[in-house]
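User: Magnesium transporter MgtE. Structure?
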Amino acid sequence: MIFTFYLSRLLHNRVYDENGRSVGRLQDLVVDANALRPKVIAVQVGRGHDSMQIGFDAVTIEKVNAQYRITCKNVSPVILQMDGTFMLKKHVLDKQLIDIDGRKLVRVNDVRLAMLSGGTFVVAVDVGIEGLLRRLGVAKPVKRMLQPFDVSIPSNLLLWDEIETVHFGQRDIRLSKDLTKLATMHPSDLADILEDLDMKSQLDMFTSLDEETKLNVLEELESEAQVAVLEQMTVREAAAILEKLPSDEAADILDELENARASEILDAMHQESSDAIQTLLQYDEDSVGSIMTTDHLCFSETVEAQEVISSLRQLKPDGDRVYYLYVVDNSNRLIGTVSLRDLIIAEPTATLGSFTNQNIIFVHDTDDTDVLFDIVDKYNLLAVPVVDKTQQLVGVVTVNDVMHTLRRTRKGRF
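Assistant: Predicted structure:
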């Protein structure tokens, strides 16, 4: 038979020995996080200013006259290895958690447990109003008061497998063994959640992500949150992650930092990355050059198709870098573009210049960003090449860059 109960119904209850004598009050439940399912392994009992932990194997919980009675067969304290354990009241109750399925931040008002033949396990958290009222001891009176009006208090239980912690505490406690849960969420949803956290929890959550997810989330964050996360990192950590971003994204973030901090981070980067970012930072804020990326793919018109395909296999570029391949002459002047389709169906020994589309749309690095909106909309382009006054290819603006700029412009107007 399964016996379920809420943590709030046990907290502060008296704990008795086998002879019915009170040995203190229940302060907390200790849980083994390394078990397949979080399992209660001890109770913490307090008496006056002292407290002790008693193994849960010696504890029985029964319901007597609508109240829970806690009895210990053996009141001898135990010493637990704290690694891999956490306490429900101290580390879970009132803490912020991520509802993985609902993709939102929630606060724990109560914890539901189930007593089975194999032990007592944490099965769910209560994030609803009912859990809060239960904590206050007024859930039943409120329900009775609302009953004549045919109004009920909705319960809101989240199964333990559907949540992920964002509050790690001093011992780096994780409430879930599955460290990849957050990575299953869309970066935009993760960014929304991260923006709602306090500064310490922001960094805790961000550093728990894998490298690829970190980059995607950082790009989705609002400027204020980007700055808040980077300000809490060391210079070396900030430099390492910004180097992996497209140069235009990294430049946008550094432009929001204090000049001294930005300079320190740039100095800690590899020279090539630092130079590319500093070039972008020199452009006026509303110019095309300020939002373009220098991470583009260009090839000489004399290169054969098979060589280009081999290079792409080695480079393994991101999807938004291969919308088009750009063809340049020996002076790096833009000649035209080649689509992936044309590249694949071309004869292996055909040079790029022999099937380059020279009827191209481009912008200058000093043009105002407003021209991009019209060009992308009119010609239905996924990316636009950027040239300088000598017609040399200096960068590319993707449709994602254009949309990001448009959102930023609209926010600035309101």
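The radius of gyration is 30 Å. The chain is about 35% helix and 25% strand.
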